[in-house]
Amino acid sequence: MSTLRRPRLSHVPPTAITPSGWLRRQLELQARGLAGNLDRIWPDVRDSQWLGGDREGWERVPYWLDGFIPLAFLLQDDGLKARAKRYVDAILARQRPDGWLCPSIVVRDAEPGKAAQLTASEEESRAKYDTWAVLLLAKVLVLYHDCTGDQDVLAAVRKALLQFSDHLDRHPLFNWGRHRWFEGLVAIHRLLELLPTSDAGWLRALADKLRRQGLDYRAFMLSPQWDHCRLPQDHWNWDAHVVNYAMALKAPLLHASLFPDDHDAHPEFARQMLDILRQHHGTAFGLFTGDEMLSGTSPVKGTELCAVVEAMFSAETNFALSADTEWLDLAEQLAFNALPAACSPDMWTHQYDQQANQIGCVHETSVIWSCNDAFASRYGLEPHFGCCTANFGQGWPKLALNAFLRDGDDTIVSAALVPARLDCSLQGADVTVELATRYPFAGRLVYTVTASRPTDFTLAIRIPAFAAHAAIDGQDTPAGQLARLRRTWSGTTTVTVQLDFETRLERRPSSLHCLWRGPLLFALPIPYTQTRDEYTDKGVERKFPYCDYETLPAGPWAFALDGADVTVEERELGALPFAQETPPVVLHARMRPLDWRVRDGFRAVADDLPVSTEPIGPAIDRELVPYGSTMLRMTELPLVGQPLPR
Fold first, then answer.
1. pLDDT, tens only, 551-598
2. Is 6 domain-assigned?
3. Which domain holds residue 428?
4. Which of 65, 42, 61, 64 is nearest to 543 (CA)?
5. Same domain for 52 and 199?
6. Using alpha carbons only, how large is the chain's radius of gyration in Å?
7. What confidence tens digit (pLDDT) does each residue in 395-447 have?
8. How far is residue 492's CA from residue 336's CA, in Å, rounded to a whole number?
9. Do the Cβ atoms of 131 and 164 come closer than 8 Å?
10. In 262-411, where does DSSP find H-type helix?
11. What is the pLDDT of residue 116?
12. In whole angstroms, what is the distance from residue 343 CA to residue 628 CA?
């Protein structure tokens, strides 16, 4: 078999990164909010079968740990770390002698000196268990090892995957496992770096087995079979599930990295896949719709929050594998726009589906979603389904883990441009690189580099493609690349990067438009009122601050842009980085009211288009705020007088 192609860039240990500034505040909000407390308040994590309880024993605890573990170690919070360890220890303690690591299956202990044997009924139970959970858990436990160095965890993952490889010979992947097979490559890739070379053969064989049993997204999407997925879906089907596609964006590059000589490896398809999905289902914020299933380009169709955080992780993975800065551009755009837009500013509630044009989040008697229920857009503990409740917490911590990467032995890469510090050793010297910035709300980046003795190394700084102009210490540098500063660093050195952003008007389907400035999408915020809905359903309690909320508009929302001229105002960056009432940057725009109506039978769902783009009132000045700072918003807007398709 071919050798492993090393990632172009490698991640540093999570404990080497210290978040600061607004990013640290965001992580602290998450720790105090919903994702930081699910083990205390939510039965599916608190009382899970993974700990010996009687609640869900499949994806929810691993999903939660995928964000909770890096959160604990990035914040260096002993209490959070102890709670993460409790779960990991409980999972490992329940590993069966043959390596099976998942709950719900009780394996009869072997007699002394004999291998464990499965009874027919136990074998049948395992056969029915969708082993997507194995792929997810392996990825999570490898991350825990990277945070702690715990060799027992590494040994448990090795044993579990050996057993899993044998299991697949008898029970091939199906359902979620078949559509998410490539998630297993994340752990396999890391194990190939951590385990002795004698393990390489069976690990590669397992990776190849997963690929052969899983869905080939390239063959599927480039065949006539995918034609029906070009249209908005009106029923649940495996072929069109939005989260599967968000995860699968990393499959081509992971496959090519593990099997670089395989003629079936097509790393370039990752970009093509994203382009196809955007063409038929693209959103204003750069992803694709999917209120469970792919849903077209309507601005009132939703995108599931799981898809947002999984697409972020796919983009971050692809950047490390390829060093293509466009993938980190995508990760940042989703992190700064779609992720906070689907969460309340205090991070105690979230939506299942977010809409670009979202004038209310209420329980309608009929729904516009293709598959989700009427609760899907409400902010709450567990709107529609609990996968996003467990999973959304990975978004911010994993972005922070991509603040700094390494390129070989002598290059530090400033990747995600968030305020953070890296502490590492280079050529025997202690090196610290600290980035202070208000980015994405402003364009100034200040790096402070400290070396304990003179040391030659490269600081590579990602210059995002959406910078209209960039300069490092006053010298122009091209956008859309890694700017490499090769120097002998000694003592303390300051490097200043200035990114200049221009406001750009982006055309959307149906002749609507949206406004961008740098990595931030802007929207017209709608004043709102909220009503708490506290109740208990199926043993799950919703109470303040993690109750459900009905959110209704309390002001006008039907406007068109009166031209594309706007002025920019930067404001103070407050304690809540993404709050509609205190945005750190606004655009001042001239707007005109329109005849734009709600859909028949709905209290708060806007029609796709206004009746006309001819104004029904005088021009007024309105503030547009970052999309991620809004609870209710109009993002896709017409231009006054511009004809619309009918």
1. 999 999 999 999 889 999 999 999 999 999 999 999 999 999 999 999
2. no
3. 404-437+444-500
4. 42
5. yes
6. 25
7. 999 999 999 999 999 999 999 999 999 999 999 999 999 999 999 999 999 99
8. 31
9. yes
10. 269-281, 305-322, 325-333, 339-341, 387-391, 395-401
11. 56
12. 9
